Amino acid sequence: MDLIVPSQALILWQLIMVAYLGFWMYALIDCLKNEFRGPNQKLIWVLLILFAPIMGTFLYLSMSQSSKVKRKFDPDFMRLKNDKTT
Q1: Which of 1, 41, 56, 77 could form a disulfide with 48 if both were Cys (CB 3.0 to 4.6 A apart)?
Q2: Which residues constitute the domain of residue 53?
Q3: Which part of the chain is the Cardiolipin synthase N-terminal domain (predicted)?
């Protein structure tokens, strides 16, 4: 039965869609977890990712690094040391 056997084009298309879905999920989760400099930038990026998925995903992944707030690594090791001695 030749109708059940998938062609190579179908398998390639499915692999591309799975890869794109991974990029889309990564962009959406990354956007929701990060803080942005402007008050409405997160909302704009989320709407762009949701309502223009192909263009919005790749625009976010390529352009959002400049608008994110840089995280500061400032652990308080003295507090941890004091907690263990009491």
Answers
A1: 56
A2: 8-68
A3: 23-61
Note the pLDDT tens digit of each residue in 2-40. 666 667 888 888 999 999 999 999 999 999 988 888 889
For residue 29, tell me if it sits in a domain. yes
pLDDT in tens, 35-56: 888 889 899 999 999 999 899 9
**CB 9 within 8 Å of CB 21:** no
Count of structural domains within the chain: 1
pTM over 0.85, yes/no: no
CA distances from 70 to 30, 35, 77 (A): 14, 9, 21
Q: Which among 47, 52, 51, 53 is positioned nearest to 25, based on CA atoms?
A: 53
C-alpha–C-alpha distance, residues 25 and 18, integer Å: 11
